[in-house]
């Protein structure tokens, strides 16, 4: 097998295998730290995540899912190599278990600098915040049922009670509360309806992908300067999430180099273009 190694070119500690040889079973899509990663469990994973037959999923989506699948295997193999206690980790490795392993292996993400936060807050403070509407809804099966709901509301029936009896929104029992929406953040046909209403008014039934909506506007906040406390909180959240993503990406890249990842692209049923593939 050593005379075939020239076919396998390294990339940052990873290897993309360009042959079906090298003595590897064709049911293997990769080896990670010397352990074989089989194709069938990955196909099952693709079907579970997408809700479709794995054969029907596009190459672009399948490539992205293979990245995620291999990331998990890299983290697990790195944990084994570092003698992390895996007794409580299930074979399916749910999100909370993956996060626990990442915390163990990668440590906390760095904090964004106060200078970066201050600069971004200053920039956003100069923007005008769009009008916002506080909305609740009824989600109904038909236009006729929407008209029935409106008739009951027009004679003074309680919105929450009508919601409990007629609506099939996930939170119908609580009155269909949706919270605040910025003007322009919703699909145009819904945005136009909502922002044409005054507080307390109801919309006519509006058809959407899930059924017919009757909206009530509870409050409208006109456009104006943003609330600085909200701006700062939002900036801190966005920056923190970005730092975590980048930290995890760097960490997994380092772990992949540490344990060694070898992809057998000729064993795959799709053209793989993910992160573990060599850039052209």
From TrEMBL:
One of its GO terms (molecular function) is peptidyl-prolyl cis-trans isomerase activity. Pfam families: Rotamase (PF00639). It comes from the Bacteria. SUPFAM superfamilies: FKBP-like. Residues 130-219 form the PpiC domain. Keywords: Isomerase, Rotamase. InterPro entries: PPIase_dom_sf, PPIase_PpiC, PrsA_foldase. The keyword Cell membrane does not apply. This is Peptidylprolyl isomerase. It comes from Candidatus Sulfomarinibacter kjeldsenii.
């Amino acid at each position: 097998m050593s005379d075939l190694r020239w076919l396998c070119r390294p990339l940052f500690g990873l290897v993309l295998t360009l042959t079906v040889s090298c003595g590897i079973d064709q049911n293997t899509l990769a080896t990670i730290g010397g352990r074989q990663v089989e194709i069938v469990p990955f196909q099952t994973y693709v079907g579970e995540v997408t809700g479709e037959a794995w054969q029907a999923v596009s190459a672009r989506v399948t490539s992205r899912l293979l990245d995620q699948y291999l990331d998990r295997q890299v983290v697990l193999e790195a944990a084994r190599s570092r003698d992390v206690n895996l007794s409580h980790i299930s074979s399916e490795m749910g999100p909370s278990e993956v996060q626990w392993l990442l915390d163990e292996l990668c440590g906390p993400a760095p904090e964004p600098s106060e200078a970066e936060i201050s600069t971004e807050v200053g920039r956003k403070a100069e923007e005008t915040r769009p009008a916002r509407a506080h909305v609740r809804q009824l989600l109904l099966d038909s236009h006729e049922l929407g008209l029935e709901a409106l008739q009951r509301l027009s004679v003074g029936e309680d919105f929450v009670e009508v919601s409990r009896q007629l609506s099939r929104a996930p939170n119908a029992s609580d009155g269909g509360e949706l919270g605040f929406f910025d003007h322009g953040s919703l699909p145009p046909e819904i945005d136009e309806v909502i922002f044409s209403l005054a507080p307390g008014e109801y919309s006519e039934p509006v058809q959407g992908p899930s059924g017919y909506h009757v909206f009530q506007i509870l409050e409208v906040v006109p456009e104006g300067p943003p609330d600085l406390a909200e701006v700062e909180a939002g900036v801190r959240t966005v920056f923190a999430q970005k730092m975590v993503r980048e930290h995890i990406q760097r960490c997994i890249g380092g772990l992949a180099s540490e344990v060694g990842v070898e992809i057998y692209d000729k064993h795959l049923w799709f053209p793989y273009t993910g992160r573990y593939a060599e850039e052209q």
